[in-house]
Amino acid sequence: MPTHETRRANLETLAAWNANAATWDEKMGEAGNDFVNILQWPAILRLLDPQPGQHILDAACGNGLMARRLASLGASVTAFDFSSNLVDFARQRTASELPISYYVLDATEPGDLEALAHLRFDSALCNMALFDIANVEPLFRILSRVIKPGGVFVFSLMHPAFNNPTSVHILEESDLGGEIFTQYAIKSSRYMSHFQAYGLALRNQPKPQLYFHRPLEYYLNLGFQNNFILDGFEERAFPPEVPASNPLTWGGQFHEFPPVLIARMTLPNRA
Ligand SMILES: C[S@@+](CC[C@H](N)C(=O)[O-])C[C@H]1O[C@@H](n2cnc3c(N)ncnc32)[C@H](O)[C@@H]1O
In angstroms, what is the span from residue 116 Cα to ligand 1's centroid? Predict the structure, then answer.
């Protein structure tokens, strides 16, 4: 059962995503950004392997960027988000011939998610959103009911070890030994505990939103408890040649550290 605190955090999260919807839609548009195009999308294609004719669920779809990409590959897509403002942008951006059905649903509300119960999916995607959702247990439960046996759930995360709200980007320079030496590092001060913290998904967004940090074992164990098996996993770092917009934002200079991870969990075929 969600606690009063979780409900309060979820309402605050909803208010933030509604307030930030126009900024998010403008920045992500159809083209996405380097995180989407270099880190997420190539791995999503490998792990989700979307095929024409499949029915795919896009959970927490934002402005529908992923839903439209999947539909353009021939899938029919059901997509939902709890921000009605974002779903409005998603609908406006979707050409009538694309087979996408959008819903406004709150992933923390089991009653809302029942709207999906009569549907069956070959696969489901939750791109860069589980850490934005105040309670992800109802989502994992419904996914294990609506994904077909043998189907997959692919999710991406800000890497909880290297890209969490406590992560600090460090650039150090020394000339020890008579040579100028620069070194990039990431320092995180929290990992194992669950905590929430304000942050910015985009630098100029009007309102900070809450991040819900959880260690990786939490997400994997939640999948296992809901009958999923982990059978695909990628940690995604920028290649060294990718320029960053400033020396300390994510880019190729941090190629030793993956800001994003992507996991595939499969529901076994019934015997
Ligand atoms: C970082 S955005 C990612 C959007 C999209 N998946 C993409 O790849 O562009 C996170 C999304 O999670 C959504 N979200 C957060 N909490 C949610 C909830 N309880 N139910 C449904 N969506 C939620 C937000 O509204 C936002 O659209």
Answer: 17
- Which CATH number do you get for residue 118? 3.40.50.150
Atom of ligand 1 at shortest distance to CA of 83?
25
Encoding tokens for residue 93?
């951006």
Q: Over 80: is that where the pLDDT of 51 sits?
A: yes
Nearest CA to 219 out of 163, 158, 151 is that of 158
Number of domains in the chain: 1
Domain limits at 123?
4-159+191-266
- Report the separation in Å between the CA atom of 86 and the middle of ligand 1, taken as the mean of its atom positions: 9
pTM of the model: 0.97
pLDDT tier, 77 (very low <50, low <70, confident <90, very high otherwise): very high
62 phi-psi bin (left φ>0, alpha ψ -120 to 50, beta other): left
Asked whether residue 85 is assigned to any structural domain, the reply reads yes
